[in-house]
Amino acid sequence: MTAQFNIKNGPPRFSIMLALFNNNAEDGLRYVEFVISKNDETPTTIKVLISSLEREDGSGDSWNFGGTTDDLFGKKRLKIFGYFSSKNRTGVLYAGKQCVSCKAKGLMGSFCYKCGNPLN
User: Fold this and answer.
1) pLDDT at 73
2) CA distance 76 to 54
3) Measured at the alpha carbon of residue 88, what is the angle toward residues 82 and 90, in degrees to the nearest 5?
4) CA-to-CA dists, residue 77 to 3, 48, 72, angstroms
5) What is the phi-psi region of residue 79: left when phi exceeds 0, alpha when psi lies from -120 to 50, beta otherwise?
6) Which residues of 71-110 are buried (b: 16+ CB within 10 A; e: fewer)?
7) Of 5, 53, 82, 113, which residue is 20 to 30 A from 60 by alpha carbon distance?
């Protein structure tokens, strides 16, 4: 199952940095909020616990991220990942798992339907 959402609004870059680097049990978990929608549905706000972040390009404003949320499909700690621009605060969010080999996105289950390898 592929679940893709458009990010209509998201956190500033500094909030993402704090969510990733200043997130421990002593201080409490830091979530960031994304406003997402699928197709033309009404936008909804979800809280995301960021666990990975990488520069998408050299601009310092484009990011590939990963994390978990409890706010989609009634699942606890659902893996999410996507692309986010901290300049215009929009992007794409995928819910589910990603194939470690072919990078197919938004998958559910244990193995990739495209290549058969384990999902991350």
Assistant:
1) 79
2) 24
3) 30
4) 15, 9, 9
5) beta
6) bbeeeeebbbbbebbbeebbbebbbbbbbeeeebbbbbee
7) 5
The answer to whether residues 92 and 65 touch, using CB atoms and an 8 Å cutoff, is no
Question: Can you read off the two tokens belonging to residue 84?
Answer: 């986010």
pTM as predicted: 0.78
Report d(CA 107, CA 111) in Å as an integer: 9
Amino acid occupying residue 57 = D
User: What mean pLDDT is reported for the chain?
Assistant: 83
- CA separation for the pair 92, 36 (Å, rounded): 9
Cβ-contact 116, 24 below 8 angstroms:
no
Phi-psi region of 75 (alpha: psi -120 to 50; beta: other; left: phi over 0): beta
The set of residues, in sequence order, having a beta carbon less than 8 Å from that of 50 and lying 6+ positions away, is 16, 19, 20, 23, 32, 65, 66, 67
* Spatial contact of 47 and 70, defined as CB atoms under 8 Å apart: yes
CB neighbours of residue 7 within 10 Å: 20
